[in-house]
Q: What sequence folds into this?
């Protein structure tokens, strides 16, 4: 038969449970009080029985516990589990003694540890980086010593001798002697004693814990005591002993504070020297890359909250700092300090610097005095917000002192508001069959484009053809006029012209207009803006055509 495991209790109905008095033992017929089927209900009854009688399990001859006996006789209850081959009347020799597990009483309620048994006196020390213990309950205090009582030792792995560890078991680890310190190491720390794949201790911040640390030592009446302890919980999914507490100085890390809702930046600054090929990281990089080819990736919560970019570059490449990736908390932020002299090469004309999906202007990239910040809001990283150094910004230009003023500058870059010089302005409007259709009517193609009071140079207007006019029948005429919408002289800019005559018959014709009548200059109303209109006359259907009218004016 095979020895069962603790997980078989109550799950294998063909297995047998033996309840014995203090004389019960594996391979013996003595002391058997009951043989029970290993069902879920029996498991519940057994645990109730064990809980009521847990004080009676302290018995010296079997469990080696000499200082907690209720009396000198073997009067305790004992519990055994065997597989399906177990027979009534005899506890099989290969049965599992489940007494200490179901009672949860053996030495777990009594300080200090579970390994000072006469039969396991050698198990209270670290051996080649490994500590082996025997499970006596789901919460145990383990008092551990160094190997061969050396002044210091390291621990990388904890093993239950019968492989009877259960999910969420808790171990409280203390040192045996204040003069012998044990350093307990996170499973990520490489060493020469235990292979990385075999290490099974997970400590906060992937660091270490030491017993007998100076801050944990106290002196009472001339005796030096070690007050340090480390509490671990077994996680069956990851097969790791995970730290849940330590004393003194329970670990307060950015992660623990972040998990508690406290927003803190990741300390430190990553220094990036930008090169023509993209960039080289000199301190810290989430991708582990030395040359990132022009794209910087930042891992939220892991990489430093500040990135400092320096370097002098003339390049045809883009440089991109992406938004952070990975989990984040509302209010988290990352900051990029751009201090590069980054200049586009003369031939490219398009390359740029983009930080957190916000483009720097060429001047900002070259001046190198910009801070771009992104913040995690409503479940996503926001586009970067730029903040340029004040000494790179112009003084406020204020507002102009009068209407119509324009901003002027000297070659030295001195800027000011000045009155606009007189001159000719031009507005344009386009007729497009695909937009305006073929209605026989006056069509406004440029509404209120010309300012009130403007003087329009009718004979200087230009018609620029883009698509020749075509019709399905008849001979329509086209005229162009300028004036107040609804009261436009329809041919004051260009007289009525057949669709198949110049300029409308050509696909690329550019020509001056021919106003109707003798008027070549008109003045727009001082109170109403003027529009540009096209008039289609005569019965016909235009099927294609597009042209633009350019109208010069003085205002």
A:
């Amino acid at each position: 038969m095979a020895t069962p495991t603790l997980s078989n209790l109550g799950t294998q109905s063909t297995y047998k449970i033996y309840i014995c008095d203090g004389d019960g033992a594996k391979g013996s017929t003595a002391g058997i009080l009951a043989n029970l089927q290993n069902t879920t209900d029996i498991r519940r009854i057994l645990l109730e029985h064990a809980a009521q009688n847990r004080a009676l399990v302290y018995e010296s001859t079997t469990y080696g516990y000499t200082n907690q006996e209720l009396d000198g006789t073997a009067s305790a209850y004992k519990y055994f589990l065997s597989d399906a081959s177990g027979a009534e009347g005899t506890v099989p020799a290969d049965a599992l003694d489940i007494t200490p597990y179901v009672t949860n009483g053996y030495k777990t309620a009594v300080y200090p540890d579970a390994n000072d048994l006469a039969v396991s006196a050698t198990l209270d020390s670290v051996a080649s980086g490994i500590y082996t213990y025997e499970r006596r309950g789901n919460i145990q205090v383990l008092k551990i010593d160094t190997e061969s009582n050396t002044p210091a030792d390291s621990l990388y792995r904890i093993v239950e001798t019968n492989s009877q560890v259960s999910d969420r078991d808790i171990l409280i680890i203390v040192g045996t002697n204040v003069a012998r310190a044990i350093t307990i190491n996170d499973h990520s720390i490489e060493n020469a004693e235990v292979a990385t794949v075999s290490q099974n201790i997970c400590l906060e911040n992937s660091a270490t814990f030491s017993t007998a640390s100076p801050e944990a030592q106290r002196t009472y009446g001339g005796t030096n005591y070690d007050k340090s302890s480390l509490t671990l919980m077994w996680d069956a999914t990851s097969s790791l002993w995970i730290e849940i507490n330590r004393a003194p100085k329970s670990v307060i890390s950015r992660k623990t504070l972040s998990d508690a809702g406290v927003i803190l930046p990741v300390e430190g600054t990553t220094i990036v020297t930008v090169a023509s090929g993209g960039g080289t990281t000199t301190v810290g990089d989430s991708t582990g890359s030395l040359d990132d080819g022009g794209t910087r990736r930042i891992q939220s919560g892991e990489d430093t909250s500040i990135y400092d970019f320096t370097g002098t570059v003339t390049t045809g490449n883009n440089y991109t700092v992406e938004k952070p990736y990975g989990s984040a908390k509302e209010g988290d932020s990352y900051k990029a300090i751009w201090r590069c002299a980054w200049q586009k090469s003369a031939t490219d004309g398009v390359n740029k610097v983009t930080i957190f999906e916000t483009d720097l202007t060429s001047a900002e990239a070259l001046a190198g005095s910009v801070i771009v910040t992104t913040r995690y809001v409503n479940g996503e990283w926001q586009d970067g917000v730029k903040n340029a150094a004040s000494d790179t910004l112009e003084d406020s230009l204020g507002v102009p002192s009068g209407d119509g003023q324009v901003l002027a500058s000297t070659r030295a870059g001195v800027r000011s508001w000045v009155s606009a010089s007189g001159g000719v302005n031009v507005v344009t409007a386009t007729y497009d069959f695909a937009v305006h259709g073929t209605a026989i009517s006056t069509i406004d193609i440029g509404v209120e484009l010309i300012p009130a009071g403007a003087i329009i140079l009718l004979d200087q207007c230009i018609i620029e053809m883009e698509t020749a006019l075509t019709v399905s029948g008849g001979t329509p005429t086209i005229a162009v006029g300028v004036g107040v919408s609804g009261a436009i002289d329809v041919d004051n800019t260009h007289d009525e012209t057949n669709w198949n005559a110049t300029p409308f018959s050509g696909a690329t014709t550019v020509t001056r207009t021919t106003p109707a009548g003798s008027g070549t200059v008109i003045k727009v109303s001082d109170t109403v803006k003027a529009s540009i209109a096209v008039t289609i006359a005569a019965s016909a259907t235009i099927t294609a055509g597009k042209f633009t009218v350019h109208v010069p004016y003085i205002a």
Summary: The chain has six helices and 41 strands.
